[in-house]
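Internal tracking record. Fields below are filled automatically when a chain is submitted to the structure queue. Please do not edit lines marked as system-generated. If the sequence contains nonstandard residues, flag them in the REMARKS field before resubmitting.
Queue: standard
Priority: normal
Entity type: single polypeptide chain
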Amino acid sequence: MHSNILDERGLAAAPSSDGRRVNALYFTEFGSPDVLRYGALPAPERTAGSAIVQTRAIGLNFADIYRRRGNYHLAGSPPYILGYEAAGVVTDAGADAPPWLSAGQRAGFADSPHANAELVCVPYEKLIPLPDDISDETAAALLLQGLTAQYLARDSYRAGPGSVAVVHSAAGGVGLLLVQLLKAAGATVIAFASTPEKCAVARSYGADRSYTYDDWPQSASGADVVYDAVGVTLNDSLASVKTGGTVVFYGMAGGDPPAIDPRVLMDGSKTITGGDLWNVLNSHAERLARANELFGLVRCGELKVPVAARFSLADGAKAHAFIESRAATGKVLLIP
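SYSTEM-GENERATED OUTPUT FOLLOWS
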């Protein structure tokens, strides 16, 4: 879902020349949630082609957990500021701002670093203007995970009427959105989650059937496609899809994936494909079109955006511990 080479360095963006400081959630060493600190760092200075956004709601994602643990490479040097997704208001658009952007405008973003701070410097091309009927919290809960679910259901494998799709981690933020998008496309959806309670949540969002991992992988047998964000389940996912089936690998929440024997692909005429949102969001026009499609689905009631919990940005360590506990069903938000 995330590239592993993007720079999280909080001071990578030029600090404010007037000595201003802003509160941020940051860390200086890898480890458990206890390494996270909340405090004042130099405020970012607006650079050419960018705007300053005052964040009002920030999305927490598993990629933030991976980076804090040290599973992803981080460029630069500490202090590191996590986060790629937030919504808020533009406080400094700059004289070079495009016609669609001005100070005071609400905007969100899904793929710009240093979001775990009160102020963030965001390139114009990555800003998505927010309609009046899409709240800051909805945008922060929807953009990154919704755009991910959207490309999985549309670009990685296009499931439709007659398709049987298996969704791992179906009660998570991406999972619940993916279940809904697959159902809207006409697919039969089989959901897998860690507990009976999460299975019930997946069904409430449209899954036709749901199972705990006690029933994995036999209850997935014969599927057209398996969406695998667990990682360690990859071989079983390949075994469960039908001849000619596809596995879409897009995460490793359960650990690093095993090595794949290519003869398994050959013998079953099967396909394994990867997916990364950064490869899809390749222009401002693409970001805007995809985001507006999601906003339209929310507006007409076809897409519900689940929020599992809200934490103060100052309580970011608690939010990280919560998402790692696997108790969340839906999105976890940080509120500055």
